[in-house]
Specification:
The chain is α/β, with parallel strands linked by helices. The chain is about 45% helix and about 15% strand.
Amino acid sequence: MRLAFLLYHYVPYGGLQRDVRLLVAELRQRGHHCRVYCTAWHGVAFEGVDVRRVPTAACGNHRRSQRFHNWVRADLAKDPVAGVIGFNTLPDLDIYYAADSCYLDRTLRERGGLYRRSARFRHFAAWERAVFAPDSATQVLLLSESQRDEYAQHYHTPPQHMHLLPPGVAPDRRAPPDAPERRKAVRASLGVEPQELTLLFVGSRFFTKGLDRAITALAHVRAAQPSVKSRLLVVGQAKPRRFQRLARRLKVAAGVEFLGGREDVADLMLGADLLVHPARTEAAGTVLLEALAAGLPVVVTAGCGYAHHVKAARAGILLPSPFSQEQLDRAVLRYFDGVFRAECRSSALQYARLTDLYSMQRLAADLIEQLLSQKREVVAA
């Protein structure tokens, strides 16, 4: 089949973009022709994939997204495909891969009435409705049960239109046999001392993922345990200036290292002592499962889609809602205990061995083939 994939931006280190890359690779391996529409592409192009860059110059994200949709729709009319798979909420999709949480739910919880009267809100709320309304023909691939509950609550989406996927951790995230040696090597390359407690933060949307909370926790635990060295490694492609100012204000700037986007996240997870993920919202959170596969203990807000895996694995601490900085501080302090860290690490590795955390792309490709075949049968009838 000829398939088209739609996403606004491709960057090499984003979680959504990683899912696009792995899913496209799986479908290409099955013999399908894959085309990707995007406004910007950063990083190495996919082998054998037709990437079409869409011009969208305009003021405002909602105007750019409208131009994106109009251009893609015109191009597909001239060069049709068997199925259109979107990674952003857009009208006219056959399948939507729901990598994000519900926009309407986030807006009602986090934004005031003035924002909800804006053209931006009306635009994106209407486009989300175009995907999830009961009369929509779009089939949805979900990453977590919390997403399903949110969309059903706000849009009454029919259950038969929503398909829950299993996790999809890349195999290279598993702790290798030489994990202890790689841990020593990565810590040495970063100048981390053997007994230094190393916190790791991974995510490109720093505020959404709670980087300010993690920096504040570092400041508080350093004050509580001044005799123990500790630092925070920050991995992600985002503007750090705001968070660098916060670190300076809290007097921990020397202990917060912004590493940018990295290819060696698997090694960084082996070298760290704790993944700190106090996200404000997170539809799934594949980074949590990658940490389990690497044997890295986790502190996470319970609202993240995959947080239940951390609890089931007994590999970390879940912070209840509403968020409390004091609870995060206490949770991080708990990991100053080396015995507790070792217990969490052992439990994480066992859970990752016994639990299917790796089959998302295969099953997502199965569903895409099945759903598009059913569509063809309906059209033919």
